[in-house]
Amino acid sequence: MPQLPNDPVILLSYLNTQLRDNYPSLEELCRSLNLNQEELCKKLACIDYSYCPDANQFQ
């Protein structure tokens, strides 16, 4: 499992890059990297971002 950035803005950038380049969905990213999807979404919600499945990114 990769070490994720603690800063939500840097985490946002990291996740969106991973989603764009390597994963077809947030579910697949979380499964592959053994991450808790709900916790990621909560962390990014604190900076007013949520996952958009149609765009496959946090917006």
SSE order: HHHEE
Average pLDDT rating: 96
Q: Total strand count, please? A: 2
Report the C-alpha radius of gyration, rounded: 10 Å
- Terminal residue distance: 24 Å
* Widest sheet, order of strands: 1-2
Which structural category do the helix and sheet elements fall into?
Answer: mainly alpha
Strand content: 5-15%
| Count of DSSP H/I helices | 3
Shape: globular
Q: Roughly how much helix do the residues carry, as a percent range?
A: 40-55%
Secondary structure: elements and pairs:
Elements: H1 8-21, H2 26-33, H3 37-45, E1 51-52, E2 57-58
Antiparallel strand pairs: 1-2
Give short descriptive properties of this protein:
59 residues, globular, 7% strand, two-stranded antiparallel sheet, single chain
